[in-house]
Amino acid sequence: MIKKIKSSLLALLLTAGLSASAYAEFNIGLQANMMGFYGVGEEKPSNNAGNKDRKEAGAFTDEVFSIFAEYDAGPVSVGIGYIPETIASPENKNVQHTSDTDNTALTNTVKVDINDILQVYALVDIPLGGSYLKLGWREATVETKENLGTGGSYNDVDVEGYSVALGYAFDTGANGLSVRLEVEGAQYDDVEATNNADTNTKVKVTDLMSGSASISLVKSF
Q1: If we measure between CA atoms, which residue out of 29, 56, 41, 61 comes closest to residue 211?
Q2: Is 18 left (phi over 0), alpha (psi -120 to 50) or beta?
Q3: How far apart are CA 70 and CA 172, in angstroms?
Q4: SS3 per-residue string spanning 44-82
Q5: What is the pTM of this model?
Q6: What is the largest CA-CA distance in the chain?
């Protein structure tokens, strides 16, 4: 999917370049982000007593940096952003039993790493000073890091979502450098993974969302 996004973006930038006016610019930037994530995890084990699913909500924060490149044709820009760092969740632990009659305690630990967050977006200037609105589509890979006393492991999954951001940019007056301040919210699709030792046991993540506040340094050419 990431290759498809990159191919689509290159085609979009090429089309814009062929029809651009003399005003068009190319921007590159480095962005520092304070991000928060929230989601609801649900396990559906095949041997769950009482047929009750195990569900738990969780949230965590992380500080990461991202890079981006844009084609600026005036009031509308198109761009691509990428977070090269791994975003790691805290580790969660629970103790389970294999059945109602077996009292042997089995300890499970699990956490997730979120990698390769890639965003394609359109940035639209708002006629209020340096304000802008940014609408984006993104994809990330969620890698599960589990140690299951109950056995097996879960596959990694790709997750897709969309984002909306509001920002303000101001020119520093030095060599095409500008600074942006931005707040952003994102909502992701539900995802499901299957235990490789028992295909009837699954985990599902719903209501996955993130929010961020960021500052960027942008160079225009």
Answers
A1: 61
A2: alpha
A3: 19
A4: ECCCCHHHCCEEEEEEEEEEEEEEEEEEECCCEEEEEEE
A5: 0.78
A6: 76
Average pLDDT over residues 23-41: 88
CB proximity list for 8: less than 8 A, separation 6 or greater: 120
Q: In 3D, which of 77, 68, 79 has the Cα closest to residue 33?
A: 68
8-state DSSP, 7: H
Q: What is the pLDDT of residues 12-26, one digit of tens each?
A: 544 544 444 445 589
Separation CA 163–CA 185 (nearest Å)? 6
Q: What is the rounded CA–CA span in Å between residue 117 and residue 82?
A: 6
Q: How many domains does the chain have?
A: 1
Is residue 132 helix, strand or coil? Answer: strand
63: containing domain: 2-220
Per-residue pLDDT of 156-208, as tens digits, reads 889 999 999 999 999 998 888 999 999 999 999 988 888 777 777 777 788 88
52 contact partners, CB below 8 Å, separation of at least 6:
none
Identify the pLDDT of residue 132.
97
CATH no. for residue 119? 2.40.160
